[in-house]
Write a sequence for this structure.
C-alpha cells in the first residue's frame, strides 16, 4: 500500500494522525484540512469520507510499523537468545515517534471500542508469533528447556514490548539507563530470579 500513495494523500494522512492524536474521536475533516494545508474538498476527493481517511491512515502507519517489527524480530537458526532479545528490545525502543503515535492511537482505540480487531491486538499477536518461532528453534536445538512456547513468548513480549510502552507512551522513568535495564531483564529471563542453592 505504501508505495501507491501520492504525496498529497501522504500529507493528509500524516495530518490525520496528528489530529487523531490530539483530538481522538472528535477529529473532524475540517481540523485535518487545516493541519494538512489542503481543503476539505481535496480530502473528500482523495478519501471519499472521514471513515475511509481514518482507516487508510491507520492501515498505512500500521504497515510501516509492522515492516519495522518484521525487521526487529527477524532471526536466524543460530541466533543467540541473549543477543536476539537485546536487539529486539532496542529495535522497539528506537522506533520513530510516528510508530509510537500509531500505538497511542491504538491504545485509545482499545478504550473506545469493543472491536477485537484492534491495532494493538494485531501487533501483539505478530510479536508473540515471531517469538514463538524463535523459541521453538531454541527448544529443538536443546538451548531452552522443553516448555510451553506460548508462555515463553508471552512473557518475553510483556517484558520487552510493554516496558518500552511504559517509557515511550507513558513516560515512566525506571530510574536507570536502558542498558542496565536490559542486562537485568536478560539475567532474570536466562538465570531466573530464585537464589541458586
Amino acid at each position: 500500500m505504501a508505495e501507491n500513495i501520492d504525496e498529497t494523500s501522504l500529507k493528509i494522512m500524516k495530518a490525520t494522525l496528528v489530529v487523531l492524536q490530539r483530538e481522538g474521536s472528535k477529529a473532524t475533516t475540517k481540523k485535518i484540512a487545516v493541519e494538512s494545508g489542503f481543503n476539505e474538498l481535496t480530502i473528500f476527493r482523495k478519501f471519499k469520507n472521514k471513515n475511509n481517511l481514518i482507516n487508510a491512515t491507520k492501515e498505512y502507519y500500521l504497515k510501516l510499523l509492522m515492516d519495522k517489527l518484521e525487521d526487529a524480530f527477524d532471526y536466524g537458526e543460530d541466533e543467540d537468545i541473549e543477543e536476539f532479545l537485546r536487539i529486539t528490545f532496542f529495535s522497539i525502543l528506537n522506533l520513530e515517534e510516528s510508530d509510537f503515535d500509531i500505538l497511542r492511537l491504538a491504545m485509545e482505540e482499545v478504550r473506545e471500542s469493543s472491536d477485537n480487531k484492534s491495532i494493538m491486538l494485531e501487533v501483539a499477536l505478530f510479536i508473540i508469533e515471531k517469538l514463538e518461532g524463535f523459541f521453538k528453534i531454541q527448544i529443538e536445538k536443546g538451548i531452552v528447556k522443553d516448555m510451553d512456547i506460548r508462555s515463553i513468548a508471552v512473557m518475553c513480549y510483556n517484558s520487552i514490548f510493554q516496558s518500552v510502552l511504559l517509557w515511550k507512551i507513558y513516560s515512566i522513568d525506571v530510574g536507570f539507563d536502558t542498558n542496565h535495564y536490559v542486562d537485568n531483564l536478560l539475567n532474570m529471563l536466562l538465570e531466573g530470579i530464585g537464589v541458586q542453592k
